[in-house]
Amino acid sequence: MGDPPPVIISDKNPLPEIFGELEITHQIETLTIPDLARIKHPRNTLWVLTAGRNKSLHSTLLANGITRVFSPTLFLGRLPDIEILTWLPDFQHRDLPEFFSMSRRILRELSYRLCLRQSDRAMVSSRAAANAIEKMSSRYAQIPLAIVPFTPSLTPVSNAAVRNTLRRYDVKEGFLYLPNQFWAHKNHTVVLDALRSLHVEGWQGQVVMTGTAFDHRRNGVFKELQSQITSLSTAGVAKFLGEVPRPDMIALMQSCKAVINPSLYEGWSSTVEEALCLGSPLILSNIAIHNEQAGTSARYFDPHDQNELAHLIRSAEPVTTRTALSPEAQIRKARFQDALRPVFHLNRPPYPSQNRKGKVRREINAS
Questions:
Q1: Which range, of 1-15, 180-194, 298-312, 324-338, averages the lowest pLDDT?
Q2: pTM for the whole thing?
Q3: Quick one: how many helices (H) and strands (E) in the chain?
Q4: What's the CATH number for 7-152+331-363?
Q5: Which residues contact 153 (CB under 8 A, 6 or more apart)?
Q6: Looking at the domain covering 159-314, what would its CATH class be?
Q7: Can you tell me the distance from the alpha carbon of 262 to that of 290, in angstroms, rounded to the nearest whole number?
């Protein structure tokens, strides 16, 4: 049978989508530790750094028969006889330091270095992230590193569901879709500037925007843009729907003329991945990760050039609603599974969707 797959360690916060995929598709267990906040506390981190070992967590894991753990950017300390696999999502604090306070930037860098120091193996989503680790130190470059480009499970909705979604939200036919959260680095400003120019020209289309209006790092981003969004919505060229249920997001993605992502930075974009799997045309900022992820399957623009973006929006071709996954979806899913299998010691194929048993979770206390 080989080695068992690692257990995902988490607290009660929602897990990133990649971990939910592992839980459901491959029945990877998540170990929920209610007092993980205490383990994360700087005082405990200082103690672990001083002692070199997290005794309470170590004894808890061994008592539960756990010898391999998967830790999402969490410093656990030295855990003898337990293999640690660490996931580092991106290096935005290095590439876009202006979006971080000095203290947050230093803490994030320290956290990454500590996580790498404790790890037997590390996992990233892109070649760009792997390059960043290799540049940090020759010491970290020696850690076995796996590049696992995440592809989510996706089920298209029916034509009737698409029509119902568009009617419910009163969306214009032939709209374009921007599904980014309103975080500073997501760069909505360039889209709003492009729409203002297009409206002056008499453009009759519409860009629909969804996503949370709260940025945990820089509160007030949405408020800064709200008057522009309201003005453009009144003019009919923009529509902000806020957070929408996932089936509605998929319906919008299936029926739009193009999905837009103007972001200044991505670790590995789930919305770009979803658009590729649904066969939706893409208009992307020409950042390195977008080029790595989408290649020739997208049209690109300078994220600081509203005129380039306006041209791509204006020239987006009408399309028919996509009702099935694209041929690309199967290729990307297979690539994800092939990259994941050796990292997680997955000796069985993924569960077909109809046989999935739900999430495998248990809760313990680290005392």
A1: 1-15
A2: 0.86
A3: 16, 13
A4: 3.40.50
A5: 21, 24, 25, 333, 353
A6: alpha beta
A7: 10
